[in-house]
Amino acid sequence: MPNDPPIRAYNDRNVYILGAGFSADAGFPLIKDFMNRMRDAAAWLEAQGGRNAEKEAIERVLEFRIRAAAAAHRVPLNIENVEELFSLASASGDKKLADSMPLAIAATLEYARQTAKPTDVWSRLQIGVLDRPDWKRPASWRMPLSYIQEDMKKGVRKGQWHSCPPYDFYMGVMCGYFNNNGDNHRDTIITFNYDNLIEQSLQELDLPFHYGLPIEAISFDQSAARIKNSYANAGVALLKLHGSVNWIALLPEQQERLGRRVLLAQLQVDEGKAVKPNRRLSGKPGYMRLSLCENYDAVRARGVSPFLVPPTWHKMFVGFFAGVWDAAVAALKTATNLVILGYSVPPTDVHFRYLLAAGLQDNISLRKVFFVNPALGDEAGNAAERKRLENQLIGPAGLFRPELREQGVIELIPADTREFFTGPHDANSRESYRERMGRPLNTYTCSGDDAPFSVSDSQGRTFRR
Q: Which residue has the higher pLDDT, 398 or 222?
């Protein structure tokens, strides 16, 4: 098109695509386990008391699952897959069921969060900080392990050491908390997950983020002060393609009841990075908006269901959601590295193929695609799943052309999230995956002894890159 901006090359643009496997270590269920966890959540909610609406929503969904078995006799439908069940429910025309499905999913995720086992102290990463007087320890970080403290007393370890939660470390690596690589780097997270695990870590690290939602389409609940304060100046784009447990859809009549003035700033986006609003618009009559809350607790306090959407193709083209998908396409167009973590390429996400195609068709910057999934390993019992993933990625009808693997552009990495982010694990390279995706702990000019950040894993090995 004659008005399209010229295509240019970029050198420091990372896009991360996260699936349910990314959140698994935090206690959130995988798709294959979700329905069983939902059944467990019903009993937990009853024991909590005062959670009747969520319990009834789960019961309604489980009843619908039984009725959906009739459809499964005629079409290839897995009624134990919550995403397929959600897609079927959205097409049923039953408004009560449509309202119950997001509430049941959110309540199940809340149950998983509340009942997750506490992070084992040995699972935390031990982080050393040297000569950073302006650095402030995040509230979620703790005292280091005893052997680290002994090393500090002996003078074996320089600087101050802290015990960092795993997801704080992952987000810190991904989004430039440890090493921001200068002003030209961009980090975009595209996620299919509904939970707030990512937001929690970004806020702990004081890394401002935005959702890719146009500002004229949102308002901020009083609980979401931290999100509101950082939204316009955010450098990290967090694009939640299936909605979020802390979003509420406000219909026009609800906006009027809340007395909300429809005079809001337009948020511009400069190559994936949010900047300050620079003009004002009045809202469009009948335009649905979102209210952003701090978390699901704040949504539940309002007595409504969160805004979640099923993985069906039509959702990407409507309302404010078009802005989220446009931002995802724009990020993929300039991506230097594409990192896919914990995503199993389910058949129900057919539109994901077209998202990739739309984003990568004009991309001249792409260097690497890292597909990270432990099911790609050689462990017993993995063969069928490994074959399925390989076919979905690089088979005759896969997401990527097979020759890209031969050229080394696509790498299939048999690792979980922790293995990918901690230490060098690639037997064929002396570099860590952090370095290979352009997100080392420290700049390349830092010497080993003077590096601002160090990380020690559970085996006592210390890395500075």
A: 222
